[in-house]
Design a protein that fits this description.
It is a single chain. With about 450 residues, the chain is an alpha/beta fold. The strands form four sheets. Strands 5-4-3-6-7-8 form a six-stranded parallel beta sheet, with helices on both faces. A five-stranded parallel beta sheet has the order 12-11-13-14-15, with helices on both faces. A two-stranded antiparallel ribbon has the order 1-2.
């Protein structure tokens, strides 16, 4: 029996008779107000009623006062979301019927998926879930996680039946922290739902705020898989370039010069070597490999790329130490300045930063390490990594300087300014090709 939603023809199933949500009666709750959830809540809050929920009361208080510590949403834009209210009170979710989950999905110290935030968010929703509601997940997961891991929690906590009493959707986040060009509305959104009408609703809901358009995947599992391979592909491409950098360094060839020459071919991909951290590229492949191993397949290429990228911090530290030894700098007791701690340039995001690998490896050599990053919150750095960033570098005291993050502020200091932090005969390591060739002593 044919049905329709927002002008899109569908094939109606038995479960679809129970689905009666429309854009007009949707009352949205966004669960988790970090880098992903806040821009989403703000965008929806410009035109419809939205509850922005987070268990971090300090975060809620700051947002209510118009301050976003992630710097993803400006105070002016927060003010434009006139229909958005922030809360940490669970009972505020009870009036909502459309729940969007945007909590983190990290890995543990054994590099296994940690679904704890996702399960806790599902439990919180399950306690207020009603007949006819829909739960849409945006958090990055392995294929099958929504229906195999999250839905059973919703059923258990609510006493309701999936695809009869409530429905689910999946629309993977594509937020790029610090990127002011590619924003939520200008990035194509992949959508999916647990029944045809649910899928149509999810697609229409996002289409109401995404100017770049949407792509409706045929199933939740397809949408989950699409997200997890986006960053796996980038991870492998960077791993290849990292391996090439190691090879070229041994040959005495400038990697950046090679990449510039190769980049003159129209279809050469412009990846650069470096540390691979952050909430996506350094994490998502482990979700995919975890699922692959669970079904009896041991991935080889993906894990090889992960091993190589995870080892780059130690490699950089080793290169710096070798150059210090060549210059007869006594390593044990030396002082090194690491410029940058955020996982990428021009943003305060510390999640899964691999700069900490350089710091810990240098400390293993008995080197005293100062970390300087004007973008990051010192309290967060201390809490997450036990690192206390310096307020400003000392002048003329460092035996080594590592440009680890390509902040514009570091570029503006320039080679002369950067070298003023070092002692006579120090080593300047430009990990990010921030300086012109010849202005540094070592490059990746």
């Amino acid at each position: 029996m044919p049905g329709s939603f927002a002008g899109i023809a569908t094939t109606t199933t038995f479960e679809d008779f129970m689905f009666d949500l429309t854009l007009e009666n949707a009352r949205i709750a966004v669960i988790g107000l970090g880098y992903v959830g806040l821009p989403l809540a703000v965008e929806f809050g410009k035109s419809r009623s939205v509850v922005g929920y987070d268990i971090n009361e300090a975060r809620i208080a700051a947002l209510a006062a118009g301050r976003d510590s992630t710097l993803e949403v400006a105070q002016e834009e927060l003010g434009q979301a006139v229909h958005l209210r922030f809360t940490s009170e669970h009972r505020a979710l009870g009036d909502c019927n459309t729940f969007i989950v945007t909590v983190p999905t990290p890995i543990d110290r054994h590099k296994r998926p940690d679904l704890t935030p996702l399960i806790k968010a599902s439990e919180a929703i399950g306690r207020v879930l009603k007949r006819g509601d829909i739960v849409i997940y945006e958090s990055t997961v392995y294929p099958g996680a929504t229906e195999e891991d999250c839905v059973p929690v919703l059923e258990h906590c609510s006493g309701l039946r999936f695809n009869e009493d409530f429905f689910a959707g999946y629309s993977p986040e594509r937020i790029n922290p610090g990127d002011k060009l590619h924003r939520l509305p200008t990035i194509t959104k992949v959508t999916s739902g647990s029944t045809p009408r649910a899928a149509d609703f999810v697609d229409a809901l996002y289409a109401s705020i995404i100017t770049a358009g949407t792509h409706k995947a045929p199933s939740i599992r397809v949408a989950e898989a699409a997200k997890v391979i986006e960053n796996t592909q980038r991870d492998l491409n960077i791993a290849l370039i990292n391996e090439l950098a190691v090879i070229f360094n041994r040959m005495g060839i400038d990697t950046e010069a090679v990449l510039q020459a190769a980049g003159t071919k129209w279809n050469f991909l412009p990846f650069r070597p470096g540390l691979v951290g952050g909430h996506c590229i350094g994490v998502d492949p482990y979700y995919l490999t975890h699922k692959a191993e669970a079904i009896g397949y041991h991935p080889q290429i993906i894990l090889a790329g992960r091993r190589l990228n995870d080892g780059m911090g130690a490699y950089v530290a080793g290169q710096l130490v070798k150059e210090m030894l060549r210059r007869r700098i006594h390593v044990n007791g030396a002082r090194v300045l690491v410029m940058g701690l955020a996982f990428k340039e021009n943003c305060p995001d510390l999640r899964n930063t691999r700069v900490v690998d350089i710091v810990s490896e240098l400390q293993e050599f008995g080197i005293g390490v100062d970390v300087y990053d004007p973008w990051v919150d010192a309290e967060e750095a201390g809490h997450e990594y036990g690192i206390a960033p310096v307020a400003s570098p000392e002048v003329g005291v460092y035996d080594g300087i590592v440009l680890a993050v390509a902040h514009d502020a570091f570029r503006e200091i320039g080679a002369t300014g950067l070298r003023s932090f070092g002692r006579e005969g120090h080593v300047l390591y430009d990990l990010k090709y921030l300086l012109p060739a010849g202005d540094s002593d070592v490059r990746l």
